[in-house]
Amino acid sequence: MRKMPALYGLPTARQIYRVTNIEDVAAEWAPGLRFLVKIATEDDVGTVARLIKSGLTGLSAAQAAGLEIGDIVLPIPDKDEVIVLYRESDLHHSLFLTNRCNSYCLMCSQPPTKQDDSWLVEEAIDIVRHIRVSPSVLGISGGEPLLLGAGLRKVLDCIEKFHPETHIEVLTNGRLFCNPRTVEVVLSNLTAQATWLVPLYGHADFVHDFVVQTPGAFEETLAGLLALREARKSVQLRVVLIEPTLRVLPELCGFVGRNLPFVREVALMGCEPIGFALANREQCEVDLAEWTGMIDQAGKLLRRLRVPFVLMNVPLCALPKALWKHAHRSISDWKNVYANECSSCEVKDKCAGLFAWHERGWKPATIRPITEGAVL
C-alpha cells in the first residue's frame, strides 16, 4: 500500500476512485464508477467542473505527482493524502480482505487484530469494479479470508463477473475447510479460476502447531486440504523457511510427496522480516546460505517424488546455481528493494531482491553481487 500527498481541487468523498486524465475522462466515464482526474493547473479544475455540470457524475480532481493513470485509490482529503490500493502497472496485484486470523504464526508479517473489519469486503468489491485492465493474476490475502465465509465467496464471484480471464490466488491457512458448512458456502458451485495457497510447516503436528502457535491446527489443515481435493481445487503448499521448518524440510517434503499427491506445487519461501518475525527473531532469523544443503536436499526429494516446486522471496546469491531456475521474483512491487551490493550484480533483473524493511530486520543471507557472467 502506497500513501502520498495530494491536493484536491474539488469536493472529494472518501470512496474508491480510478485515476484518469483530462484527455480520457469523458471516454472512460461509466455510470456507477468514480474517477479522480489527475490535474496540473487551475484550468484543469475548471474543465473537470464543466464535465460534472454536463452530467458526468462521480468525478473529482487532484494534484498528486506520484499517481499513475489506472491507479485505484482512496482519497483522504482532510489530510491532503491519497492511498493507492491497486496499481495497474505493478507486477503483482492483490486484495486485502481482513486483518483477523485464527492462527498466530511465529513469523506473521501482518499480526492479526480482533476488530470487525468486514467493510474491507465491500472495499475489495469496489476496487474490482474500478479495475480497467484485467490482471492475469489477482491475489486475495489477510488475515484469514475464510473467516469471512460468504463475504469471501462474494469477492470471488465479483472477480469472475468483472474479470473472467483473471486467475485468483487465495492465501489461506485452510483450517476452516474442515467445517462442511464453510466448504458449502465458499466452494459449492464455485466457477472462478482459483488456486488456494495453503501453508504447511511440518510433517507432524508438533512442528506445524508450534509454528502457527495453535494446537490442533495441523489436523485441521490436513482436513482442509482434503476438502479442497474433494472439490477438485488447485492447491499450492507454502513453507516459510525459518529455523523450525528448515530442520524438518526433507521430512516435510517427503510427507507432501507421499501423502498429498494432488498438490499442484510447493513454494519454499524466505521469511519477511517484519511483524511477529521481529519478536521471534531467534526462530525466524536465518542465513539461508547456511541451509543450502537442506534446501537442495528438499528440492531433489520433491523432484524425485514429481512434485513441482518454486523458491520465493529468496535472492539468487543465497542459492546454489542449480536452484536458480526454481527462484521467482515474488516480492510485491511496493515492498521490493535491492541492497547497494546488488548494483553490480549481473543477474539483478532476474532476482527476487529484498523486502524494503530488511534494514530494520535482516537480510536472508549475506548479499554478494554475482559478477562471473552467470545467467539463468
TrEMBL record:
| Listed Gene3D superfamilies | Aldolase class I
Which Pfam families does this entry report, sorted A to Z?
Radical_SAM
| MF annotations from Gene Ontology | catalytic activity; iron-sulfur cluster binding; metal ion binding
Q: Where is the Radical SAM core domain?
A: 97-242
State whether keyword Cell membrane applies: no
What is the name of the protein in this document? Radical SAM protein
Q: Which residues cross the membrane?
A: none
Keywords, comma-separated and alphabetical = Iron, Iron-sulfur, Metal-binding, S-adenosyl-L-methionine
User: What InterPro entries is this protein classified in?
Assistant: Aldolase_TIM (IPR013785), Radical_SAM_PqqE_MftC-like (IPR050377), rSAM (IPR007197), rSAM_paired_HxsC (IPR024032), rSAM_sf (IPR058240)
Write down the species. Noviherbaspirillum autotrophicum
Which cofactors are named for this entry? [4Fe-4S] cluster
